[in-house]
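Input chain follows. Return structure tokens only.
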Amino acid sequence: MHKFYSLLALLAAAISFTCCTDDEDNGTYEGGRNDNKNTVNDEPAVARLEFPRLKEGNNKVIVYRTSSNSYDPDGVNFAVEWDCDKKSQRWSCYQMHTGYTGSYNRVTDGKYYNDTENLDPGDYYSTDYIRGSGYEHGHVCPNADRKYSYMANYQTFYMTNMQPQYHKFNGYTNSGSDRGEGLWVRMENQVRSWTPREPTDTLYVCKGGTIDNEEQIIERLRGRLIVPKYFFMACLVKNSMGYRAIGFWVEQKSTDWRDDEPLSAYTVTIDKLEELTGIDFFCNLPDDIENSVESTVALKAWGIN
């Protein structure tokens, strides 16, 4: 009998050790296995669902926070991954909740700032090469998505959140014979319309332009600042029905507004978007959920024709 209980104790210890090892070494955690999640070092925010997998190399993650936790329990406004060698951003990511609207919009109209607090002088161009180049300062996290406080809106005007974009891609014109609305603007409006109405629901967004592949670059302003040829959006919503995801992939052009083209023509699965960009989106989801939501797009569920 004693041998029997001793054997049970040894078996229990072995099982306990196996589970512990699996947790620490093989990426399992409460909620499901996750082999590709971000490793949390100094910045805990990288474990949030809007974050893609961080790129190795001379990159910095900058998390912009506000003093208030009213809209986000961690006080997070949005975040950027900055390539210090290319002096350009790879993406901006953020969350959208009910109540993010407000009266603050374009609080620094016409002014854009280098983030000298988070970047060293050699990490960015001190000259604003977008100004006067024929391109516009394209907010990647839109200032219109961050109207709930002055500081939240102000932070979207950092150059770390900018990419050069054509006016007919990023802007609109309401007067004259050449009226139109840029395709990127229409996509941003569509994403904004997905802001959840229930306080328990969340929309996770990651957006950017292509800087990693020379074939996905239009030019370098004055031989330096990259102009992305393609732009992307990765969106994930969590609500009472579970999770679903959708991607946008679009070439930026200056020739016409393209405002008669359906947004459905530019939707892709997250799996396809990862193939096109080389970025692992929503890596902090449990692997089973990630694999499921990233392989399909239900356009009707997103209200896209």
